[in-house]
Amino acid sequence: MTFVWSNSWTGGTRLYIDGNCRDRNHDLFAPTWRRWLSARMIEGDAHSDLVEVRLIALVHVRVQILVNGQFVAGDRA
Predict the structure, then answer these.
(1) Percent of the chain residues topping a pLDDT of 70
(2) Where are the domains of the chain?
(3) Which residues, 6+ apart, have CB-to-CB distance to 46 below 8 Å?
(4) What does pTM read for this prediction?
């Protein structure tokens, strides 16, 4: 499985799993670490692994990707 997180001023933030856009968010700022995007690895399966994108975004954007609450990539807190 591949995870892609993208962010743009005009298109918002998106989470892609295996090329499919699974979640999006159009907010502009996150002053504290917060879950921004999330999706199950297998769409429609409430028991499959949960992918979360957490971020903090003020002047700079810092991102963490977690699977089932465990850090897998990105910036350390």
Answers:
(1) 99
(2) 3-74
(3) 40
(4) 0.85
